[in-house]
Amino acid sequence: MEQVSLAAEKRDAMGKGVARKLRAAGKVPGIAYGRGADPVPVTVEERDLLSLAKHGANVLIDLKIDGVDTDDDTLAILRELQRDPTTDRPLNADFQWISLTERITLAVPITIEGTPIGVEAGGVLEQSLWELQVNVLPTAIPSSIPVSVAHLDIGQSLHVRDLAVPEDVEVLTPGDEPLLTITAPKVEEEGVVAVREQEAAEVEAAEEPEESQPEAEA
Question: Which range marks the domain in which residue 10 is found?
Answer without folding.
Answer: 3-100
